[in-house]
């Protein structure tokens, strides 16, 4: 199968040199390098998940409806401002 890749010049030169030294075609060397790279990647590896902090509140929820992202941002900003004022007073 043919495809076009835009590779850095130094990488292509290195692959061409390797192919010439080994008396092989560039396409064979490139395919070998790609196969080795794919073999190193764990099969079925899951993407890294970010652990978000869990914020526990001691009071019952004020409402049943879900908050919008803007409302959550406002609550967090107000909470941070309260914490900052409390820390400044100590």
How would you describe what is shown here?
By secondary structure, the chain is mainly α. It is built from three helices and no strands. The termini are far apart.
Question: What's a quick, concise take on this entry?
Answer:
The chain is mainly α. It has 3 helices and no strands.
Please specify the SSE layout and strand pairing.
Elements: H1 9-22, H2 26-40, H3 69-88
Unreliable sequence segments: none
Number of helices: 3
Proportion of helical residues: 40-55%
What would you call the structural class?
mainly alpha
Strand content: under 5%
Distance between the termini: 70 Å
Mean pLDDT: 84
Provide the gyration radius in Å: 28 Å
Shape assignment: elongated
SSE sequence, one letter per element: HHH
Main beta-sheet annotation = none
- The count of DSSP E runs of length 2 or more, i.e. the number of strands, is 0
Key attributes of the depicted protein:
single chain, 90 residues, mainly alpha, 54% helix
């Amino acid at each position: 199968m043919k495809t076009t890749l835009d590779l850095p010049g130094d990488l292509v030169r290195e692959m061409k040199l390797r192919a010439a030294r080994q008396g092989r075609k560039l396409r064979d060397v490139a395919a070998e390098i790609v196969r080795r790279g794919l073999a190193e990647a764990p099969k079925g590896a899951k993407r890294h998940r970010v652990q978000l902090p869990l914020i526990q509140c001691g009071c019952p929820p004020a409402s049943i409806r879900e908050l919008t992202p803007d409302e959550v941002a406002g609550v967090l900003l107000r909470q941070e401002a309260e914490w900052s004022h409390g820390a400044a007073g100590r």
